[in-house]
Automatic annotation (TrEMBL):
Keywords: Membrane, Transmembrane, Transmembrane helix. It comes from the Bacteria. Residues 18-217 form the Urease accessory protein UreH-like transmembrane domain. This is Sulfite exporter TauE/SafE family protein. It holds the Pfam family DsbD_2. InterPro entries: Cupredoxin, UreH-like_TM_dom. The chain crosses the membrane at residues 60-82, 94-114, 140-162, 174-198, 204-224. It comes from Actinomadura litoris.
Length: 339
């Protein structure tokens, strides 16, 4: 695939599907970029959403997206040259998602007037205006660059394409195209966040803070799933219920079939025999969501599935126990129980 085709593939993926998934994962970083660049004092009466503040929000979003673009282009070039070895594993991404959840919680506490959070997030408030503004832009740029280590499932798909390009230019093209494809939605979300923050007062601020705390909890849960750190819980499928998804081929290998759908895996719980050679068969049919990036946390393994087709993962000879799996963004979990 030539450079132009790689760029267009990345841009198309970002524009058509990547914006929503990445915005969900990286909302905390984007919110931090906007709030960090805003003036800390109250707006003049009757001017809650002044043009100056709106311009500040837009510049913060542009700074954030510019840094994100540069970071992803550099990552793409590295992946094209060095391959998947430079990608963070599932547990590392789990830690980063937990950190993103913490940032969302801090922004929510800041909105509620919690003084320690306000002091932590607005440490530039006592500086001169030019110095504080420069600090806000540096923060927006830093948070934009940090998105490279908190990828969504479709970002991982683009990264795999960068790896397979085997070229620094090709890898940079696909990752740059992907970020540019997601930019319109990110820009709209960022400016909207700024406008909401400019006008919310009283109960509205409480509602927004509650929404941010809910998003923080969801992000933290995703990170814990991705790292494999959630306590074992939940039921297991019966052998009878799993029979249609588990079979043995003529060589004696146990085949466990799981379908990756746009909004989860079917079955999400399956029971199989322990102590026999087992192959996990992952099937897709027009799948375009997070679930195409399939992760087995305890193996530290990510597998990018095609939109249509079948992918096989050799699990060796599993002992008795539960092998958990999840999409690479930590949103859709499942497990195979070996008995």
């Amino acid at each position: 695939m030539d450079v132009t085709a790689l760029f267009l593939t990345g841009a198309g993926t970002g524009l058509l599907a990547g914006g929503t998934t990445c915005a969900a994962v990286q909302l905390g970083l984007l919110t931090g970029a906007v709030t960090g660049a805003r003036p800390t004092g109250p707006p003049p009466p009757g001017c809650a959403a002044s043009p100056a503040r709106a311009g500040t929000d837009a510049r913060a979003v542009v700074t954030f997206l510019s840094a994100k673009l540069v970071a992803h282009v550099l990552l793409g070039a590295s992946l094209g040259l060095a391959g998947g070895a430079v990608q963070p594993g599932p547990r590392v991404r789990g830690v980063l998602l937990a950190a993103a959840a913490l940032s969302l919680a801090l922004f929510a506490l800041d909105l509620l007037g919690f003084r320690p959070a306000r002091r932590l997030l607005r440490r530039d408030r006592h500086r001169g205006a030019p110095e504080a503004t420069r600090g806000g832009w540096r923060r927006a740029a830093g948070l934009g660059a940090a998105t490279v280590v908190v990828p969504c499932g479709l970002t991982l798909s683009a990264e795999l394409l960068a790896v397979t390009s085997r070229s620094a230019v090709g890898g940079a093209a696909v990752m740059g195209g992907f970020v540019l494809g997601t930019a319109p939605l990110f820009g709209a979300v960022g400016v909207t966040v700024g406008r909401v923050l400019a006008v919310v007062r009283g109960r509205a601020a409480v509602l927004l803070a509650a929404g941010l705390l809910a998003a923080a909890g969801w992000t933290l849960l995703s990170g814990l799933r991705l790292g494999g750190w959630l306590p074992e819980r939940g039921g297991t499928a019966t052998a009878a219920g799993s029979a249609r998804f588990v079979r043995t081929d003529t060589s004696g290998t146990q085949l466990v079939t799981v379908w990756a759908l746009d909004r989860g895996y079917r079955p999400s719980r399956v029971t199989a025999r322990a102590g026999v050679h087992t192959v996990l068969v992952l099937r897709t049919d027009g799948t375009r969501g997070h679930t195409r990036a399939f992760t087995i946390p305890q193996r530290g393994e990510d597998v990018i599935l095609p939109e249509h087709g079948e992918t096989r993962i050799d699990l060796g000879v599993p002992g008795a126990g539960r092998m958990r799996f999840v999409c690479a963004s930590g949103h859709y979990p499942g497990a195979i129980t070996f008995r």
